[in-house]
Amino acid sequence: MYYKSTRNSDVNVTSAQAIAQGISKDGGLFVPSEIPSLSLEEIKKIGDMSYADRAAAVFSKYLTDFTEAELRYCVDNAYSTKNFDTESITEIAHLFDGTYMLELWHGPTCAFKDMALQILPYLLTTSAKKIELDKKIVILVATSGDTGKAALEGFKDVPGTSIMVFYPEDGVSAMQKKQMTTQDGDNVGVCAIKGNFDDAQNGVKRIFTDAKIANKLDDNGMMFSSANSINWGRLAPQIIYYVSTYAQLVADEEIKLGDKINIVVPTGNFGNILAAYYAKHMGVPVNKLICASNSNNVLTDFLKTGVYDRNRKFYTTISPSMDILISSNLERLLYHLCGENDATIRDWFGKLASVGKYEVSDDVKAKLAEEFYAGCCDDDATKACIKEIYDKYSYTCDTHTAVAVKVYEDYVSATGDKTRTVIASTASPYKFSGSVLDAIGMYDENADEFTLVDKLAEASKLPVPASLEALKNKEIRFSSSVEKADMDAYVFSSLGIN
Ligand SMILES: *Cc1c(COP(=O)(O)O)cnc(C)c1O
Asked: Which domains does the chain have, with CATH numbers?
């Protein structure tokens, strides 16, 4: 197994190289040369394993240049009760008959990003060692709220690395901001930018692919890598929980081996749902992949029409981690769907960069329609959905997950499909206490964030995550805020180079 670039099919690197580098020099994303397969028998066996063993089994198909010992080192350190509040690492809750909430937020920062970012530092430092890289790895992150904190927790004080996070000044929740600005660790930096997530992501991508900047880092014994889902080391760990969940539902006799399931994913950068696509094409029986968006519904329109058009109003919503108009990982999907034609991808993504718009071929449109269903909802519908499931099923979910539930309800009304369905629950409701309380009619505008947390505890009966509780008394360490043009300067000054 080797990795190609979506913008140059002649690129041919090992997984260690792909992970250490983060993004290909041509600006393309690394993709596996083929999607490995998993038989139903193998999937069944996975149902008897611990999460760490499940992870090792799936990784062994993708990271073929890693030794068994290297994989064990990575999975054992990442997926244990040292980092997660449940032995099973993820939880499956029953919403109603045949509908399962896959809770991916039992890690240290209470969002699904932990599933990948707890292991990425191990994958990355192991990769660096394997390719005999003797440079300090500088991780640059653009975050819409959750990735930043999860990456900081994963990389803090990891030897040989340094991490810098950029977040949109007015685009994250109060709890997300508090989580990031109080971050400890000697190798971390956090900075707000005056702009939205797309500005932060574009800024980071620009810095990454600027040869002059790369040379400057090189002169100082450093190199960039990425902890965003453009890094294959972020995406591969996300495939695991879809395989794991299917195997678990079989083991629990909720479904029979071979039965198809739907998977619903609240989507922003298209990483999480793309992982479900890989799981499906490895052999997990999946009927529809359901892509749920908030008012930033560029993906809904794209999956319905084949026209991607980012020239539209940007909304700041109560599901901020999905406030994205340029979904990076779509490039990987389209590369697979267009027959791995790098020229086609260069054409489409060149148009996206120059005019903000492209249209895929009829052949690709047909494939998209077969695999995906897409829907969206606005903030009012999101809140109404939180209230509905709180009242009906005594289940409290966060704003992102509610978007997925609502779009799933719309899907069922439109199609009548009765296939059993897994809904990705991507964050703890405590990360968005204000919006969740508002939805269920218990918001108090005079209360501070931690009083809101206490109120939500009363309403939801869910234990407050210790990591969020601990923030109450933490001091703010990072208060910089820069114009997007000044991101480079912030990077250089943090690294002490000029
Ligand atoms: C990041 C995030 C999403 C979107 O996931 P993508 O992989 O970017 O599509 C959804 N919900 C939450 C809570 C997130 O943090």
From this structure: 91-107+235-465 (3.40.50.1100)
Q: Do 131 and 309 meet the contact criterion of CB atoms below 8 Å apart?
A: no
Report the nearest atom of ligand 1 relative to the CA of 271. Answer: 7
What pTM does this model have? 0.95
Measured CA distances, 442 to 405, 431, 451, 461 (Å): 21, 16, 12, 14
Per-residue model confidence (pLDDT) at position 269: 93
Contact 295, 383 (CB under 8 A): no
Catalytic residue ranges: 113
> Ligand 1 pocket, 427 CB below 6 A?
yes
Q: Give the mutation target among 176, 242, 267, 296 for probing the ligand 1 site: most ligand atoms within 8 A of CB.
A: 267
313: phi then psi, degrees, rounded to nearest 5? -65, 140
Q: What residues in the chain have per-residue pLDDT under 50?
A: none
Rounded Cα–Cα distance for residues 413 and 358 (Å) = 31
d(C-alpha 287, C-alpha 263), whole Å? 8
The residue whose C-alpha atom lies closest to atom 15 belonging to ligand 1 is 146
> What are the Cα distances from residue 260, in Å, to 98, 215, 331, 333?
12, 50, 26, 21
Specify the pLDDT at position 144.
Answer: 82
